[in-house]
């Protein structure tokens, strides 16, 4: 999954770096030569649609999808495990439904030979295929993680299941931020201590 996450992140970045280059070129052409490529806004829409599907996968693999844990924190361990499993299964079901609906759109586009109502008149099958590929990746990852959640629970590996499928806690988020900050500064990651004052002092030390 780490390789998938890295490749998806690189692809996500490449899409929006490419879009920023096109926007810069469009701005220069309009300013200096009073002309236009006529389609950068169209490319922006495609980039947003395709980039969003890739972001679904990145958020899934890094456990960044928003979860309301108001009840989660107040139930016993067995209840939390059930909620975590339900979350994984429902997300996998949602991803599968999105993928199926996208396939229906692809089928209709092929059937009608649809083109964009823009100066470029782009055949929609091309951007929609990339959009569908992003949703398919999201669905495959979500189904894989749902299967892993079931496998861990049925195998009696409750601690590992809790670590991988529970909502991210405050300490875990702080640990990741400290690790990212330390990596940018070329130093080793710092451990997050429960006491907020100690955590704040360590953040200050790294930032300075």
UniProtKB/TrEMBL annotation:
Keywords: Cell inner membrane, Cell membrane, Membrane, Transmembrane, Transmembrane helix, Transport. Its main location: membrane. It is a multi-pass membrane protein. It comes from the Bacteria. Residues 189-208 are annotated as: Disordered. This is TRAP transporter small permease protein. Residues 196-208 have a biased composition (Polar residues). The chain crosses the membrane at residues 7-23, 43-61, 82-106, 130-154. Residues 20-144 form the Tripartite ATP-independent periplasmic transporters DctQ component domain. Part of the tripartite ATP-independent periplasmic (TRAP) transport system. The complex comprises the extracytoplasmic solute receptor protein and the two transmembrane proteins. Signal peptide: none annotated. InterPro entries: DctQ (IPR055348). One of its GO terms (molecular function) is transmembrane transporter activity. It is found in: Cell inner membrane; Cell membrane. Belongs to the TRAP transporter small permease family. GO terms for cellular component: plasma membrane.
């Amino acid at each position: 999954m780490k390789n998938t996450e890295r490749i998806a992140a690189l692809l996500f970045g490449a899409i929006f770096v490419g879009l920023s280059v096109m926007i810069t070129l469009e701005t220069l052409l309009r300013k200096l030569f009073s002309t236009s490529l006529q389609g950068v806004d169209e490319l922006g829409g495609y980039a947003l649609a395709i980039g969003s599907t890739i972001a679904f996968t990145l958020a899934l693999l890094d456990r960044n999808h928003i979860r309301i844990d108001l009840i989660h924190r107040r139930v016993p361990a067995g209840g939390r495990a059930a909620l975590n499993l339900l979350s994984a299964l429902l997300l996998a079901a949602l991803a599968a439904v999105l993928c199926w609906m996208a396939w229906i759109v692809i089928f209709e586009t092929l059937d009608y030979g649809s083109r964009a109502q823009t100066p470029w008149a782009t055949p929609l099958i091309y951007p929609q295929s990339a959009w569908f590929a992003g949703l398919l990746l999201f669905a495959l990852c979500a189904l894989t993680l749902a299967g892993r959640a079931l496998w861990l629970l049925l195998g009696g590996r409750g601690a590992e299941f809790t670590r991988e499928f529970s909502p991210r806690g405050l300490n875990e988020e702080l640990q990741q931020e400290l690790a990212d900050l330390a990596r940018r500064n070329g130093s080793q990651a710092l451990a997050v201590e429960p006491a907020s004052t100690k955590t704040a002092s360590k953040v200050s030390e790294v930032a300075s």
